[in-house]
Amino acid sequence: MAERFKIQGGETLKGEVSIGGAKNAVLKLLAATILVKGKTKIYNVPHLTDVDIMLNVLSDLGAKYIYDKQEKSVMVDASDITSITAKYELVSKMRASFIILGALMSRCKEAIVALPGGCAIGERRVDFHIKGLEALGAKIKIENGYVHAKASKLVGADIYLDIPSVGATENLMLAAVLAEGSTRIQNAAQEPEIVDLANFLNTIGADIIGAGTSEILINGVKAENLHSAEYTTIPDRIEAGTFMAAVVATKGKAIIKNVFPAHLTFFNDKLIKMGASIKLVEPTTIEVSCKNRLQAINFVTQPYPGFPTDLQAIAMTLLTTSNGVGIITESLYENRFMQVPDLRRMGADIHQDRNHAIVKGVKHLTGATVAASDLRAGAALVIAGLMANGETIVEKLHHIDRGYEEFEHKLTKLGAKIYRYNDAEEVKIAHEIRGSV
Predict the structure, then answer these.
(1) Between the CA atoms of 220, 223, 228 and 230, what dihedral angle is there, to the nearest 10 degrees?
(2) pTM for the whole thing?
(3) Could you say which DSSP state residue 37 is in?
(4) 115 three-state secondary structure
(5) pLDDT at 254
(6) Which domains does the chain have, with CATH numbers?
(7) How far apart are CA 165 and CA 174, in angstroms?
(8) Could you tell me which residues are beta bridge partners of residue 110?
(9) Phi, psi of 370 (to 5 degrees)
């Protein structure tokens, strides 16, 4: 049943909010649990659609799990892996589940994994994953939409990535954990989620050095060296950036807890240049505020530690009512301006030229009915609704639910007027209105 957000704009966000575990980290940690022939427990796991999908992938492979929503933890028992096939029905729903390829190759030396799906933000090919696995000794063929990979053994190798692909770096790290000898990944992705995966793998007995730099060294270990462990996921830097933007967009003031400020250095710098105030209260707590109209500046998305592509749509929303003209250059994905038509519906002045968006600030946005086209575009439209005059309806919430846990509840706690409703509730309200006439 289709669900929507109804947002009454114009409220100033104030108060306190706590950020959950990083979606883009926890999904990879869950995939990595199948390396351990035993139980592994992960804390700070957000309740998200994408997490449910990854847990279903693990279950389909034969692993057992217990998800404690109160504790926000997942216990995975991968003692018995009974299948090497990650089915299309699951993998097609979420691109991150393709990471199971490296984990299966490490544990079973064989994998059949459907080609990935996920948000339609542009082409994200798996060539780097395939070439890297082949360098480790895997024989790979692609048939009927599935990657078939097999190796009698995996042997360490030097692998250079043409671009610092996050997914390829993670897949190759997982595959190399049990390979013979050492594997060196050059031009590796440097995202905090890469570091989190390496830390988790080291916690269960792997030997990985250099995560967070452009060169990662994985010294292969024996399967018997891997063991059960407990681990806590890092906070979600994109969720943190989203709430920071929401507070700034509404000229509010809020305390944001459970955040690693160092993971958002570039984003924080841009917000400050626009006129926001960001203060460190405690090592994992910041105060964000904004009193005046923001000043337009330019953004260029880049691999970490540059400006995050996952916050580009949200940055664009801030520019829509800023003073002056700002230019956003999307250097990573060709279809990541999908929020533009809906922002225009709300009164934004945006000119798009291929991977550039020129945003001229207007005095205010006005409420409209809009639809989330992908996860981050959906969050951007919610923030636009909070900024706008009047009422905004945001449709296709399944995109937003992939990456934001209890989004509307956290916003409501900050003073936003937002609630979720579905088709049945809308029909019921219509009947009640007609009945009272």
Answers:
(1) 20
(2) 0.94
(3) S
(4) coil
(5) 98
(6) 3-19+235-429 (3.65.10.10), 23-232 (3.65.10.10)
(7) 14
(8) 150
(9) -135, 170
